[in-house]
Amino acid sequence: MNDLDRSLVEVAADLAAGRVSSVELTRAALARAHALQPALNCFISIDDDTALAEARAADTARSAGRSLGSLHGVPLAHKDMYYRAGAISSCGSEVRRDFRPAITATVLERFHAAGAVTIGRLNMTEFALGPTGHNAIWGDCRNPWNNAHVPGGSSSGSGASVAARIVYASLGSDTGGSTRLPASANGATGIKPTHSLVSRHGVMGLSFSVDTPGPIARSAVDLARVLKVIAGHDPLDSTTSQLAVPDYEALLPRSIAGLRIGVPTNYFFDAVDPAIADAIEAALAVLQSLGARRVPVQVPLAERLSELSRALVYSEATALHAHYLRTHAADYSPQVRVRASTGLAIPAATYVEALQLRSVLLRRFVEQVFGACDVLVAPTLAIPVPTLAETGVGAGEAMWPIIARLVQCTAPFNYLGVPALSMPVGFDARGLPIGMQLIGKPFAEARLLRVAAHYQTASDWHLRAPPLQYP
Amino acid sequence: MADDLEQQLAAATAALAELQGFTHVTTETAARIAVGATHAVRAVRAAVVASQFDIEPAHFQLELERLADSDADPGK
To answer: What is the DSSP-derived secondary structure letter of residue B14?
Structure first.
């Protein structure tokens, strides 16, 4: 088996044992990135020189007997909105095509401290404003399972590059589903952590009340390794939680026998595509075979939560983009310009009401939902992965309802700030992946990762690779 | 088909955009903005059913921590 096709945890162990070098792995990742770029357009920039320099440094440290951390020598890549001081971070936009921030994102500092190698900057929806992965500036990223289809967004390159076995994991970000949707559409495993678990310092803002950096990997086990590296309080981000971060990997083996898996009786399965419903039923049966119990759960005000989230996101996005919209409006693509401007028409008092209501609805959600179950499930996407054509500007008005449905099952949990993980649970008739969400109480990442890891011991959806011409 | 409120909001949006110096907001853009904004505002109005006079928005972070999962149970 090619080393790039193995899991992050496996290659990290091989690196530690000296069975493979970081330079070898990084060269292979770079070669695959270049080879697949014409078909997938995962990257905005592939950074051969800096990647190989980092890999050599990792190997030198290893030779000297120094272990840098749990990701020592592992090649990764991240959405092009994580700042590195002095280096370009385009945010997927024309407006910031040459933007060089003065600061480095705390999450990148933590990856560096853990020994990870970064091979490039990943494609994304312009300014992370959209759930499909279209990008009129840098070119559309494409789904590796079928490149006529969207890879999901806004972390399009993050999902596609992990699924295509270019990198072992990547950072996305999630404001309405932007980590979970690409994870689902590409057959990867991704998590939107609890709001405030992961630092936003040095990360492009879209909606500071809702934005959550989130990793994508090929399995829950790999995801546990990556999340542990980036989670936890950051003195440079006053909104991060002071709570201790568990050892997610160490907690994975614990049994899920007796855990109550909640299946919503309202909203989330309304008009869900039959193939998606079937795949989730089958996944629930697997979890039951592992000892989990299935229980029905009513989710309070579920039908309002996505719109409540939009009240926050639109308002804050318009505030953040106001100066650019006044001075560089022509540099935005039309769809993104409208999305960035929608807060213009939301009254400030409505925005504050939506902010105030969050803690009220969070409390009600936790009491009612997690009084009845330990983990809630929902589709990630309630509709089959659409094509680029169906959801592009060429589709006209017909694209708007499809785009709205893409975040139907993900955005509610951004408003509530709770963690939500997406894992692959099957494929539809066209061969495109199907994802299922696991949702938990605040800071329940360990529980979600544990349930997903147990599921993945009893299934192989996460091991399947897209049909590409791999080098 | 835009409803009456959306049409009125589109006109108001165009005026607000001009007031704030957003020259890119055309009639068509204002109409699209009005659709999105109308849905969001209606959702907030419908969801607020009691006074929020004493609610501090920043307490949301504290509420997340207060409701934190411990995952101390090795499977129940």
So the answer is: H
**Residue B71: predicted pLDDT:** 65
Q: Is A430 on the interface with B (CB under 8 A)?
A: no
Cβ–Cβ contact B46 with A under 8 A? yes
**Cα–Cα distance for residue pair A222/A10, rounded to 1 Å:** 9
Strands A375-379 and A433-439: antiparallel
Model pTM? 0.97
pLDDT in tens, A401-420: 899 999 999 999 999 999 99
Instruction: Please answer whether residues A148 and A387 qualify as being in contact, where contact means their C-beta atoms are separated by less than 8 angstroms.
Output: yes
Give the pLDDT confidence of A442-463 residue by residue, as tens digits.
999 999 999 999 999 999 999 9
Interface size between A and B, measured as CB pairs under 8 A: 163
pLDDT at B4: 86
pLDDT in tens, A314-372: 999 999 999 999 999 999 999 899 999 999 999 999 999 999 999 999 999 999 999 99
What pLDDT does A394 receive?
85
Output the CA–CA distances (angstroms, integers) from residue A329 to A88, A95, A174, A334, in the order listed. 21, 9, 25, 9
Sort out which chain A residues have CB atoms less than 8 A from B55's CB and list them.
356-357, 359-360
pLDDT of residue B69: 86
Q: Is B1 on the interface with A (CB under 8 A)?
A: no
Q: How far is B28 from chain A (nearest CA, A)?
A: 10
User: Residue A417 and residue A375: Cα distance in Å, rounded?
Assistant: 15
- pLDDT tens-digit map of A222-279: 999 999 999 999 999 999 999 999 999 999 999 999 999 999 999 999 999 999 999 9
With an 8 Å Cβ cutoff, is A311 touching chain B?
yes
**Where do we find the tokens 């605040």?**
A442
B76 — pLDDT class (breaks 50, 70, 90): very low
Q: How far apart are CA B7 and CA B19, in angstroms?
A: 19
Give the CA angle between residues A425, A225, B76 to the nearest 5°: 65
Query: Chain B: nearest CA to A106, how far in angstroms?
Result: 20
Q: Nearest CA of chain B to the CA of A141: how many Å?
A: 26
Cα–Cα dist A267/A156, whole Å:
26
Q: What is the pLDDT of residue A45?
A: 98
Contacts of A301 in chain B (CB under 8 A): 47
